[in-house]
């Protein structure tokens, strides 16, 4: 596939924003479709001139983007390697076998399914493999950081299953395992889900396993967020404890947008059938190839260094935000996630996010584990990929505090954020 060349960069229309090196040859697109190429170039400009602090985002490598833009995007390959409904699947089979082999080796799993289109598709398939509609499931309650697939009323999970939600201790912000155990005893769930969109600490998988065994429940780890840290040895692995591990392949793992499932051999057939043909048709084979590339990258020693830096940066960011006067849930982080309550600065989370976005700091609001007010969720995966270090985190926290307090000249603040981002381009030329 095409790689960045000076010629491909020169193909950008003169009015394009400065985006540094583009990861792929946009020449054909620029020539053929100015409207869409203009949008993509503007997005590249947005990503390289602002700080991406959304905890679920990252910058995939040019190699991952090349696989995504490859001719495997044209291929239909319903089924599994060696058992497809379509002809001409030799290379698709090879790509999927490589992705499965690499995922199993990276995570020490007996079986991997790399076909789920997304994290939600992976969770859907796990439920389809293990549960019947109407079954009771215990998962982190949405107000405490549970995902939509953990029982939200508007999601298939809330519609088709009876969810009971566990929470966190109101003082420490940590998972209340006594409550999980009590709920498991009272509700006798068919499955217990551990995983969250905003919990900044490691779940105690051993304890979850013990509670699930006591209740006769399956344990499903929804490790969408920590999967990249697990790959890099910067977080404990649920693989030895959970019956099924669901994850996304983007976020810290830095692969293409998509999902994956790990399990033991005894559940492998049920999981595979739950993915295809139960919940999905043909897998996106270009994405499967890109997942293989990302798993290859995550197995390299440099990725372990990256994963540990992500956590070190998040710890420094959490401490520096606390010094700026924000309240940090659980008092810090063990992961890439920091959840901050801006209330002590006299600002609600939505106003804070607007001010931060205006200054070029892109992040989310999220539920706080106490009260009705929302907090700010940040992540360090993308800025760490850009090469930012602990000093940069302290600087980001200072810019964050100034933006939330609406201190100083907004133009100067935006210029400082832009300078920091552009000094660390996601795709250096
Ligand atoms: C814990 C958890 N589960 C599932 C998902 C769903 O992933 P997707 O958006 O790819 O469907 C997410 C995404 O943020 C998540 O954080």
Automatic annotation (TrEMBL):
<comment type="pathway">
    <text>One-carbon metabolism; tetrahydrofolate interconversion.</text>
</comment>
<dbReference type="InterPro" id="IPR015424">
    <property type="entry name" value="PyrdxlP-dep_Trfase"/>
</dbReference>
<dbReference type="InterPro" id="IPR039429">
    <property type="entry name" value="SHMT-like_dom"/>
</dbReference>
<dbReference type="InterPro" id="IPR015421">
    <property type="entry name" value="PyrdxlP-dep_Trfase_major"/>
</dbReference>
<dbReference type="Pfam" id="PF00464">
    <property type="entry name" value="SHMT"/>
</dbReference>
<comment type="pathway">
    <text>Amino-acid biosynthesis; glycine biosynthesis; glycine from L-serine: step 1/1.</text>
</comment>
<dbReference type="GO" id="GO:0004372">
    <property type="term" value="F:glycine hydroxymethyltransferase activity"/>
</dbReference>
<keyword id="KW-0554">One-carbon metabolism</keyword>
<feature type="domain" description="Serine hydroxymethyltransferase-like">
    <location>
        <begin position="30"/>
        <end position="398"/>
    </location>
</feature>
<comment type="subunit">
    <text>Homodimer.</text>
</comment>
<comment type="function">
    <text>Catalyzes the reversible interconversion of serine and glycine with tetrahydrofolate (THF) serving as the one-carbon carrier. This reaction serves as the major source of one-carbon groups required for the biosynthesis of purines, thymidylate, methionine, and other important biomolecules. Also exhibits THF-independent aldolase activity toward beta-hydroxyamino acids, producing glycine and aldehydes, via a retro-aldol mechanism.</text>
</comment>
<keyword id="KW-0028">Amino-acid biosynthesis</keyword>
<feature type="binding site">
    <location>
        <begin position="146"/>
        <end position="148"/>
    </location>
    <ligand>
        <name>(6S)-5,6,7,8-tetrahydrofolate</name>
    </ligand>
</feature>
<dbReference type="InterPro" id="IPR001085">
    <property type="entry name" value="Ser_HO-MeTrfase"/>
</dbReference>
<keyword id="KW-0808">Transferase</keyword>
<feature type="binding site">
    <location>
        <position position="266"/>
    </location>
    <ligand>
        <name>(6S)-5,6,7,8-tetrahydrofolate</name>
    </ligand>
</feature>
<keyword id="KW-0963">Cytoplasm</keyword>
<protein>
    <recommendedName>
        <fullName>Serine hydroxymethyltransferase</fullName>
        <ecNumber>2.1.2.1</ecNumber>
    </recommendedName>
</protein>
<feature type="compositionally biased region" description="Low complexity">
    <location>
        <begin position="1"/>
        <end position="13"/>
    </location>
</feature>
<comment type="similarity">
    <text>Belongs to the SHMT family.</text>
</comment>
<dbReference type="InterPro" id="IPR049943">
    <property type="entry name" value="Ser_HO-MeTrfase-like"/>
</dbReference>
<keyword id="KW-0663">Pyridoxal phosphate</keyword>
<dbReference type="InterPro" id="IPR015422">
    <property type="entry name" value="PyrdxlP-dep_Trfase_small"/>
</dbReference>
<feature type="site" description="Plays an important role in substrate specificity">
    <location>
        <position position="250"/>
    </location>
</feature>
<feature type="modified residue" description="N6-(pyridoxal phosphate)lysine">
    <location>
        <position position="251"/>
    </location>
</feature>
<feature type="binding site">
    <location>
        <position position="142"/>
    </location>
    <ligand>
        <name>(6S)-5,6,7,8-tetrahydrofolate</name>
    </ligand>
</feature>
<feature type="region of interest" description="Disordered">
    <location>
        <begin position="1"/>
        <end position="23"/>
    </location>
</feature>
């Amino acid at each position: 596939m095409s790689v960045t060349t000076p010629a491909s960069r020169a193909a950008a229309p003169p009015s394009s924003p400065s985006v540094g090196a583009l990861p792929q040859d946009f020449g054909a697109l620029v020539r053929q479709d100015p409207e869409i190429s203009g949008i993509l170039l503007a997005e590249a400009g947005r990503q390289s001139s602002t700080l991406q602090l959304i905890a679920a985002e990252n910058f995939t490598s040019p190699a991952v983007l090349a696989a995504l833009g490859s001719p495997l995007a044209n291929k239909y390959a319903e089924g599994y390697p060696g058992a497809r409904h379509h002809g001409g699947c030799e290379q698709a089979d090879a790509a999927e076998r490589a992705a499965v082999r690499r995922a199993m080796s990276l995570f020490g799993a007996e079986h991997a399914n790399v076909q789920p289109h997304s994290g939600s598709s992976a969770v859907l398939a796990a439920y389809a493999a293990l549960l019947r509609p109407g079954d009771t499931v215990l998962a982190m309650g949405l107000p405490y950081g549970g995902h939509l697939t953990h029982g939200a009323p508007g999601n298939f999970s809330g519609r088709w299953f009876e969810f009971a939600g566990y929470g966190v201790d109101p003082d420490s912000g940590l998972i209340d395992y006594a409550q999980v155990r009590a709920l498991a005893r009272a509700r006798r769930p068919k499955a217990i889900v551990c995983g969250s969109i905003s919990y900044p600490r490691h779940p105690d998988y051993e304890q979850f396993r013990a509670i699930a065994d006591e209740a006769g429940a399956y344990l499903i780890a929804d490790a969408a967020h920590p999967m990249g840290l697990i790959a890099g040895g910067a977080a404990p692995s649920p693989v030895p404890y959970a019956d099924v591990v669901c994850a996304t392949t983007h976020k810290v793992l830095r692969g293409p947008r998509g999902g994956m499932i790990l399990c033991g051999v005894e559940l492998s057939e049920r999981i595979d059938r739950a993915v295809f043909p139960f919940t999905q048709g043909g897998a996106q084979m270009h994405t499967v190839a890109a997942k293989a590339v990302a798993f290859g990258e995550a197995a390299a020693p440099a990725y372990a260094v990256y994963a540990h830096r992500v956590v070190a940066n998040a710890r420094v960011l959490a401490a520096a935000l606390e010094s700026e006067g924000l309240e940090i849930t659980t008092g810090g982080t063990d992961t890439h996630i920091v959840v901050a309550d801006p209330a002590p600065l006299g600002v609600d989370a939505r106003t804070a996010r607007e001010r931060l976005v205006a200054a070029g700091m892109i992040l989310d609001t999220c539920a706080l584990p106490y009260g009705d007010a929302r907090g700010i969720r940040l992540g360090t995966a993308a800025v760490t990929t850009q090469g930012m270090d602990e000093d940069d985190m302290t600087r980001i926290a200072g810019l964050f505090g100034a933006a939330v307090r609406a201190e100083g000249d907004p133009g100067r603040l935006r210029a400082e954020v832009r300078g920091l981002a552009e000094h660390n381009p996601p795709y250096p030329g």
